[in-house]
Amino acid sequence: TSRDPELPLGTDELRAQVAAALAANPERDVLLQADRAVAYDHVMNAMVLLQGAGAARLGFLADPLVNEASP
């Protein structure tokens, strides 16, 4: 079945897709990106899910710091 890539994955589906990708390449880097609006506990839950799916090489993508006091 095809699914809309704009729709969020459920926890079980995400875990299965990550596990399948890592089974094909266990040394694959898994990168997590979230903006300031995402609650910290959501980010931590995502990390736990990814690690549980086998992600041993987990990292973060970050935007450069912006000096908010600048005009």
Description:
With 71 residues, the protein is mainly alpha-helical. Helix content is 38%, strand content 8%. It is built from two helices and two strands. The protein has helices at residues 11-24, 40-52, and strands spanning 30-32, 58-60. Strands 1-2 form a two-stranded parallel ribbon. Helix 2 links the parallel strand 1 (30-32) and strand 2 (58-60). The protein is globular. The mean pLDDT is 87.
Question: Would you summarize the structure shown here?
Answer:
This protein has 71 residues and is mostly helical. 38% of the residues lie in helices and 8% in strands.
- Total helices: the number is 2
Total E-strand runs: 2
Looking at the structure, what is the overall shape? globular
Strand content: 5-15%
Show unreliable segments.
none
Distance between the termini: 49 Å
The strand line-up of the biggest sheet is 1-2
